[in-house]
Amino acid sequence: MAALNLKSLAAYLGKTEASAALASTVVDAADAAADAGPLVVFYTNCQGRGLAYWLSKSPEFKRSYPRVRFIAVHDLVDRRAEDFTPAQKALLGACALVVYQPIGAKHGRFATTESGAWALLPQKAKRVGFAYLYDECCFPLYMTRGAVCARGAAAVRAAVARRARAHDETFVEAARAVRASLKRGTADSDLFELRARTADSLANLRRREAPLDVRVADVVEAGGRPASPLFLTQNHPATALLVACADRVLRVLGFSALPRGAYEDAGPNEAGIPGRVFPPCVFDRPHRIVGAAPAPVPEFYLELFDRVVREMCAGD
Q: Structure pTM?
C-alpha cells in the first residue's frame, strides 16, 4: 500500500482538502467509530503514528482517550502552508491531550510554543513531547539527502583515500579494493566512521529531548537485539524503540506500562510505519544491535557504495 501522506493525497485532492483529510485520519476503525469522549491529537510526523499504534495497546490509554486524530505538522511545514485548516484548528481546540514533536519558533503558527500552535489548545489540555528520532549510523552512504547523509558519503571518500595512500593506489584501485573487502565482510569495522557519527547522533538526541517528557537516548545507546532492532532506517524507529517511547508516555500520564504480551511477539515494524526498510549491515549492526557478528555487506549497500564512488569520480 502506498504511504498515506500529503503528496499522495494532493494528487487526488487539493492541498487544503488533503491536509484536512490527514488531520482527520484515525488509527483504526474503532477510533473512527468513537465520536465521544476525550480526544488525543498526535502533532507529529509518521513516527507519531507508530507511537499511537502502541499506545492503543494500553487499556488505560484507550479508555482515557477513545478518540485519536493526527495533524501531519511536518507536511504543513515542508510545504510552507499559511495556516492550519479549519478542521485542524477544531481538533487542536477540542483535544484533551496532545502528543507532539517539537516544531521551532521560526515556523510561526505551527511552532510548539505558546504563541504558535499551543495558543489553539484548551487551557486544561495536557502535552507530552518526544523528540524526532534518528540514528545517523543507519544511513551511511548517500550523497545529497541532507547534511547527515552527506557526512556518510564523506566518510566513504575518506575510507577510499586512506586505502589509496596506504597502498600507493589510484582512487579507482582503492575503491575496488575497499568494495571487495565489504563484499567479503573483512573491511575495517569502523570503515565509515560510525562510532564517531553515532556518538554525535546520541549527543544530538540527548540535547533535543532534554526539555521533553519522553527520553529514549539511553535506550538507543544500549542497542537492540538481532531479532529486535531499534531502527529500520535512519529515521524509522522499530517496534522496540516505539514501545520504549510508549511506556514513557504512559508513565508521564500515570498509567501502567504496556503489558508484555502486547509486543513480545511483534515484528520489527508491527506499527506499519511507511518507508523502505534497510537490510541490516555489518557497519551499523554493532551500533544498533548488541552482539551482532561480522558478515558480508548486503548487495543493497554495495550498490550505494558504487553510487558514491561514481559520483566522486565524476566530480574529480
A: 0.80
Helix/strand/coil for 91: helix
Q: Does 286 score more than 60 pLDDT? A: no
pLDDT higher than threshold 60 for residue 285:
no
3-state class (DSSP) for residue 225 = strand
Q: What is the DSSP string of 6-29?
A: HHHHHTTS-HHHHHHHHHT--SSH
DSSP 235: T
What does the buried/exposed string (b/e) look like for 92-123 if buried means 16 or more CB atoms within 10 Å of the residue's CB?
A: bebbbbbbbbbbeeebebbbbbeebbbebbee
Dist CA 193 CA 187 (whole Å): 12
The one-character DSSP state at 130 is B
Domain positions in the chain: 6-129, 133-230+277-316
Q: Is 301 exposed, middle or buried (0-12, 13-18, 19+ CB in 10 A)?
A: buried
